[in-house]
Structure formats: C-alpha cells, structure tokens
Design goal:
Arc Repressor Mutant, subunit A; disordered C terminus; OB fold (Dihydrolipoamide Acetyltransferase, E2P); five-stranded mixed beta barrel; about 30% helix; 33 strands; 19 helices; alpha+beta
C-alpha cells in the first residue's frame, strides 16, 4: 500500500477525527521535508472526490461527511437541469436543477450534497457544493449581442447554459453573428462566465466555421508542432539496405492491398495460399510504423497525444504527418516497404493451428479497390478479371478462406452488424451534395475477416507470452440495458428466447439471432442501432478481458498503426520480443496502462467529432428539401414527441404539440403516444409519411411534421421561428464577414 492509500485509509477509518493540515502533519509524524508531498496527496484525494476540506479547513472522508457524492455533471439540452453521474458505478444518478448548479458547467466533475429531505421524482436531488475539475477549457459559440463595452456569446453546445461575457479589448473585434472560440476565465453565480476570445471562426451560418468549432470543442489537434515537422523532414522517402537486416524478404511474394477508392494511407496488405494438406496460409502484412516513429521522439509524443486519426466528411485529420501516413509508411504499390507480418496456418474449420510473427520487407504488387474486387468476385467482370488475371486465383482462395473464418466466428456467437451505413458526400467546397449508402461487398467483408483473425492471433500470442500489452476489451452488457432492449424489440414482435437474468446472462449469439430476424427489413437499421447503444463501449486496457461482441477470448488492435496509437505501441513491444531485446519492467507496465487510458479517451473524442460533423452535414443537406415529403420509420417515442428516421439515415423529431388531429398522451408502459379522443397509437417501428418542416444548422436539428398535419399554417410557424432565430439578417450581413484572425502565442 503506497503513502496515498495509507492516508486515505486513515482518514476513512473509524478512529479518525477531522484534522486540519498542521494537525495532520503532527499526528502522522510527517517531516517538514515531506510537507509539500502531503499537501499534494490531500489535494489529489479532494480532486478525486474521496475526501473534502470543510469550511474550517478540516479534512474528512465523504463517507463520514454524510450525503456527499462526486461525479460528472451532464446537463440536459432541452431544459435547465442535469444529472450527476457518480464516479462509483453502483450509485444512481442524482438530479440537479439549474439553480443548484452554482458555477458548474456541463461535463465538469463536481461534488454535490444530496438533499435527504427531497421526496419527489424517481431520482435523488442534490446541489453542487464544489467544482472538482473543469472540463471546458475552450468554448465555441456565436456572438449575439454587443453592449456596454462587452460582447455576449451563446455556446453552440446547448448543454452549456452559461452566458459568456467578453470585454471588448479581449474580443479580437468579434461582431454580432461571428462564431468564436473563447477561453473561460472567471466563473460567476447566475451562470455568467467572463472569457477571452482566442480565435474568430467565421459567420454563424458558415458550415466551415461550424466544423472548425466542433473540432476545437472536442480537443482535436489539427496542426503538427514544429518539432514533429522537423523530425519528419529528416525521414528518408525510401527503404535503405541497412534497414533490411534481420528482416525476412517477401518482395517476390504475391502481396497486395485492398482498400476504398479514396484511401490514401495503406497500412495492411494480404497474401494467401492453399496448401496440399488442405490448410490455408494467410499472411497479414502491417506497415512497420514503429521503424520511423521511435520511442520518445517528437513524432511519437504527437501520436500519443492524438491517439487516432479523425475521419470527417470534408477532411481527414491524421495521427501522423502526411509524409509518413501517405508516404514511407503507406504500403503503396511497386515500392519496398517495411512490415510486421503475421502468417497464420488455418484449417478447413477456420482454426489457426500455427502462426508466425516476423519482421519483413514487402513490395505490394497491386493497389486494389473494394469496388473492383467486388465486381470481379460477385459479377465476374470480364474486363477486370482479364486485367488482374494474375491475382484472380489468389482472390478466389481469399474469398473461400474468408467464408470459412466468418462461419466459424458466427458459430461461436460473434455479432455481425451488417446493416448498410451511410456516408455524406461533399463537393469541392466542402458542401454536402448527397447521402449515399456505404455498400459492403464480399471484398470488404473478406479484409475484415483477415484483420479480425490477425488481431485475435496476436492478442492470444501476447497473452500467453505474458507481455505487457494493450488489449481491446468489450464487456458484456448490463442486465438493465439488455432488459430495456428486449422491451424495445417487442415493438417489432421480437424477443429473446429463454430467461435472461443474473444467473443466465445474455450470450452474443442471442443478439445475432435478433439481427438475423430483421435483416433486409425497413426496421433493420433502427434495431441494429438500438442494439449497438445497448452494448458496452469497447475500451483499451492492459488487462485482457475478452471481446463480448466478437465472442473472442483475446483481442487487440494490431492492424492499423498509421491511424491508431495502440497498434503502434504494441508493434514496438512485439518487435522487441521478436528481436530478443524485450525487458519487462514497471515502467513498461505503467506505459501500457497510461496508453490504454489515453487511447480510449482520444477515441471517444474522435467519435464525438465524427458524429457531430455527420449530424451537421446531414442537417445542411436536408435544408434543400424543406417542404418535401418522405417515408420514414418511427425510431423512438418520447413524452415530447417521436423521432423518425428516413431511408437515408437522417433522423428528425415530430413534436407532440404539432400532431394536430388529437391530443396525444405518452404511455410509459408501452412507450407510445396515444390520442386521447380517437385512440390513435404511434409506437416504435410504425411507418409514417412526413414533411420536412425545418433543418436548423445551429442546433443540428431536423423537425418533421406528419404529412396529414402539414397545413400552411403549421409550416409557416416553423418558418417564423427560423426567421426569429436569424433576426435582422440583412442588417447584419456586413458584420458576418470572416476576418480570418487568430490569436497566437
């Protein structure tokens, strides 16, 4: 037990009486030389919400202090209230009204006092008494007023209620209608924050400024620092002879890449042969990024900080500089590239009976695309089959092997989310022009199977070799979430077979059976998405806990070191082990633990960014169709209305107040809206005909009305609301010009 744990155990013990700092120094017999360390330990325990310093300066455990709870404040975007999600998983969320938040903002870690006298509602109610940690280092919003030597900014994030006030001399001359990035400086009661403008992003209606704001809010770094660029400039553009020492030469082997049409960074290549004994030999060859991104270098530190590449509709924000990601690390055709290869001997039942992990050099023979390979394997395209006749026999072997691997994986219970996803296409100006289904053909699934197989094989190898490692874990879903999902699918006449409780946990195969039941139906996407939301979030960890969704005992991310930091990190560990240079120590164990946490956090930020930009682009695209009718499916029913999803994956809200043929009441037991007079029922899965009433870019929100309710009066009210939001638009036109200013230093 370290010193921090001992001090906390003492404060939490029954014999402890609340002490001031100097009293604690005496009682614990702490020498003056360790005074600063004790202060730091007590501060950390306070920040972690384990102890609290009273108004009289005495330190007490939260358990002894009474009804205190530490957690993250999550505010509601539709009302002035929120919930504090406890740091401890077994404690329920606590309701906090807007008046009881003090100076806390959405996302802050706070300490609250629970109101023991509160008896209403389904949740406990509390009041924020201390901010443990601020989460909003930067706020993006729009200037809505200029008065008395200040500008006033409203945050784009509607979960942030504060009014931001910036003195003119700290405003970078921002005008009404400008979108700005600001730094909060002073927090005052009444949800008022004094801040300073850091940069001007553009006009409030500019898509570019909206995207820049989303990127900034999620902490995504776009520019590489000078040290990283200097190191990158020194990296050679070609593989040298000296780098081939200790590597197996595979340059004459038939190895090639298969990627999307618009891909530019190729970090995996494949090879396959059919052996005389009936087994297959699959080779998965991954770019050896660690050869160029060395431990402790500026490039490596930058990659650690970014954690992952971020893929947006109008751009890619890479983890590594382009010279690496698209150049020397990318497995481009007809050039030598350094790789880490995993050869797997696979029997006809799909079992990996033998494997070999080796440092290699390859020369990819072709840069194939999913579209072309799909045309060859699915449509037997004569022109393509003739053009790539040297690859066709290998592709046929790969197709057969992938089918074997997939069947084995499904048999053991792995979940396959094969529902069609959509992708927003943009023009040269970054404006959305279409929403297209992302078709996954036989080649897409083939490469996916090969990467999954390599990831499992490497993870199992590392586990039994007892290497400090970064695993990719996916825990089983909670009983509460599975019970809720089961209630949801009953709307479609579906349910799980057999009893599911603590003694009979859900098996992934039961979830796959539901996906099989809805495959090819209009509700496939809705059921699949709700199932995804019912599952736990996969995370990186130094401990192997298996992957529920894949029904795999061992899993890691090994195949994408150009765009994911965990892959890069484990490559370095594996190479040292292969070379006999591996030394296990406490520093390495601490590193993989820290890298796991960092990579998981970066992944969440990237996903939020990608999702928010996707929602923005879909909203911007749908602006072109206001007043048009569409077929949709009810995706979710709430007390205030119902969400409807169109075939192109766009989702919008029909507000109950705009359902004019009756007065609709929400029935919680059936999760449906029921007409009070006529008894008409709307529930999840119902097909409806809707009219697009509004697409609000600022809110990233789409409003539908039922086609039968879409009279001129109702649609006019939406237009008036929009005009009210953009009041005096013509008058402000000159003020909305982007000045292109940015604060430096």
């Amino acid at each position: 037990m370290d010193r921090k744990e001992k001090i906390f155990a003492y404060i939490n013990s029954n014999e402890y009486v609340p002490l001031k700092f100097q009293e604690m120094m005496i009682v614990l017999d702490v020498p003056e030389s360790d005074e600063e360390e004790l202060r730091n330990i007590l501060h950390e325990l306070c920040m972690e919400g384990k102890i609290v310093e009273t108004k009289k300066g005495r330190y007490v455990s939260i358990e002894h202090e009474g009804q205190l709870l530490a957690g993250k404040l999550v505010c509601n975007s539709r009302g002035h209230f929120g919930f504090v999600i406890s740091d401890e998983e077994d404690k329920e969320d606590v309701f906090v009204s807007g008046d009881d938040m003090g100076t806390a903002l959405n996302g802050d870690r706070v300490l609250i006092r629970i109101d023991t006298g509160y008896e209403g509602g389904n949740h406990k109610q509390g009041k924020v008494i201390k901010i443990l940690e601020r989460s909003n280092r930067l706020i993006v919003g729009v200037v809505y007023k200029k008065k008395d030597g200040h500008i006033f900014v409203k945050a784009d994030n509607r979960q942030i209620y504060a009014k931001f006030v910036i003195p003119i001399d700290k405003s970078m001359e921002a005008q009404v209608g400008d979108r700005v990035a600001l730094e909060p400086k002073k927090y005052k009661d009444g949800h008022k924050v004094i801040g300073e403008v850091l940069s001007l992003l553009g006009s409030e209606e500019s898509l570019k400024s909206c995207i820049e704001g989303i990127i900034l809010e999620n902490g995504i770094k776009q520019e590489f620092d000078s040290a990283t660029l200097r190191e990158t400039a020194k990296i050679p553009e070609n593989v040298s002879e000296a780098q081939l020492d200790g590597r197996e030469d595979l340059r004459d082997m038939l190895i090639f890449t298969i990627d999307g049409d618009d891909a530019r960074d190729f970090d995996d290549a494949v090879s396959a042969t059919y052996e005389k004994d009936g087994n297959y030999t699959l080779g998965v060859h991954i770019a050896d990024v660690s050869e160029y991104v060395t431990d402790g270098s500026a490039i490596e530190l930058e990659a650690y900080e970014r954690g992952t590449s971020v893929y947006l509709a109008d751009r890619v924000i890479p983890m590594l500089p382009e010279k690496l990601s698209n150049g020397i690390c990318s497995l481009n055709p007809n050039v030598d590239r350094l790789t880490l290869s995993c050869f797997m001997e696979i029997n006809p039942q799909g079992e990996v009976v033998e494997h070999r992990l080796v440092k290699t050099v390859i020369n990819s023979k072709e840069r194939m695309t999913y579209n072309n390979v799909n045309k060859m394997l699915e449509d037997n395209d004569e022109i393509l089959c003739e053009r790539y006749k040297h690859l066709l026999p290998t592709l046929k072997i790969m197709e057969k092997l992938a089918s074997i691997l997939r069947n084995k994986r499904i048999k053991r219970g792995s979940i396959n989310f094969d529902f069609p996803e959509t992708k927003v296409k943009v023009n040269e100006y970054g404006e959305p022009v279409s929403i297209e289904k992302d078709i996954r053909g036989v080649s897409n699934k083939m490469i996916e199977e090969f990467m999954l197989c390599a990831n499992e094989t490497v993870a199992e190898y590392a586990y039994w070799s007892e290497l400090p490692f970064i695993y990719r874990n996916h825990e089983a879903p909670s009983l509460e979430k599975i019970t809720s999902f089961n209630s949801f699918i009953m709307n479609f006449g579906l349910s799980f077979k057999g009893k599911i409780d603590k003694d009979n946990p859900i098996h992934p195969k039961a979830l796959q059976n539901i996906l099989d039941a809805v495959e090819g139906t209009p509700e496939e996407r809705i059921v699949s998405m709700n199932m995804l939301h019912s599952l736990m979030k996969a995370k990186y960890s130094e401990e192997n806990m298996g992957h529920f969704g894949l029904a795999a005992k061992y899993y890691c991310h090994f195949t994408s070191p150009i765009r994911r930091y965990p892959d890069l990190a484990i490559h370095r560990i594996l190479k040292d082990f292969i070379d006999g240079k591996f030394e296990e120590n406490s520093l390495l164990k601490s590193y993989v633990a820290a890298a796991s946490i960092q990579s998981s956090e970066c992944e969440v930020n990237a996903e939020h960014t990608e999702r928010d930009v996707d929602d923005l682009m879909k909203t911007a695209y749908m602006r072109n169709f206001v007043g048009d009718s569409f077929d949709g499916v009810v995706a979710n029913v709430m007390s205030f209305g119902m969400f409807v999803e169109l075939e192109n994956s766009v989702e919008g809200l029909i507000r109950a107040e705009n359902m004019t043929d009756d007065y609709y009441i929400y029935e919680e037991s059936t999760a449906s809206l029921v007409g009070k007079r006529k008894g008409k029922v709307y529930k999840t899965g119902d097909k409806v005909r809707v009219v697009l009433a509004r697409a609000d870019i600022m809110l990233r929100q789409i409003d539908f009305v039922l086609e039968k309710d879409a009279d001129k009066k109702l649609l006019k009210s939406f237009k008036e609301k929009k005009n009210g939001h953009n009041h005096d638009k013509k008058k402000k036109k000159k003020q909305l010009k982007y000045k292109g200013k940015k604060k430096h230093g």
